[in-house]
Amino acid sequence: MAREIRELARHRDNMLRSGGKEIQHMQKSLVLMNIKVDTVISDTLGKSGKAIIEAILAGNHDPKSLAQLADRRCKASRETIEKSLEGTWDSVHLFELKQSYDLYKHIHTQITDCEAEMDRLLTGYTDGSGTDMQGYVPTNKRVAKKKAISFDAEKHAFSLWGVNVMEVPGMSLGALAVLMGELGSGFTEKFASAKSFCKWCNLVPNNKISGGKLLSSKVPKQKNRVGQVFRLCANSVNSVKTGLGVYFRRQKSKGGHLQAIVATANKIARIFYAMVTTKEPFDESRVGLDEKELLQRKKALAQRTLDKLNLRLSVAEG
Predict the structure, then answer these.
(1) 208 falls in which pLDDT band (50, 70, 90)?
(2) What's the CA gap between 68 and 61, in Å, rounded?
(3) Are 180 and 1 in contact, with CB atoms under 8 Å apart?
(4) What is the tens place of the pLDDT at every residue in 38-86?
(5) In Å, what is the CA distance from 314 to each residue of 271, 300, 306?
(6) DSSP bridge partners of 216
(7) Entry pTM
């Protein structure tokens, strides 16, 4: 059954990518009609963009009327949105837009059906795990409607692993769906330690040493779906005010954005492995330094440097 869940999770990802391609096709059709709504609305298929596209396909080609359909929370003014909707309304491009939009809706209908089948399989798979659900407390993380899943992946994950890994910053419902399919219930028995788990996830550098000298420490270019999930989780914490967010920014200041993603993904993978192994909830205090303590350390280091410079200056003047 774990294999079936894994196949459906991969099938779902493929359909999500297909849906993304149709969004690009819609954007191309709009641009060819001189409609630049994607420059003023961040999400073409969000609430505002979807309402505008549906109105265009229904025959409404009045820029002023279309601009009124944008959500009031849009940062762009109504006048700016109106100017971006002054198009040529070519019949061929309108036809292409309709075809792409219909295909996009069909793909997402298929995704919902796929998620329903995943829910059925996960229910049968996790019911036999024997996990006591009395300690389950949902995190109630805010999930964007566009990234929502039609089944309770958080509850299934708790039933599968005996701990709520959704508590980890950056973890999402989509990530849980992939991890449940790729790892299954007893994956911790296959790895001797968190280090070996991270190595399998391709989240550790491949150090090449010759004569005691480090020649290279690049991460191998290997595709690992679990490692990719942890990288996505790491990238989502780059600006959050948590211990993992502070860690990400520290690593970014040392080696750049890509290095920070791998380092933070490695830390998230270790936290994930430890939580599933020990069945202990996520503890923010064990992640690392918080922002205030880090600033205090930097202040102390700067003060020691200043004291040394003052001493050198006094010696030179004496």
Answers:
(1) low
(2) 12
(3) no
(4) 888 888 888 888 999 999 999 999 989 998 888 888 888 888 888 889 8
(5) 50, 21, 12
(6) 208
(7) 0.78
Vertex 189 angle, CA 183 and 192, to 5°: 110
Residues contacting residue 68 through CB under 8 Å, at least 6 positions apart: 78
Structure token digits, residue 15: 């359909």
The residue with tokens 């920014």 is: 249
- Cα dihedral value 48, 51, 56, 57, nearest 10: 140
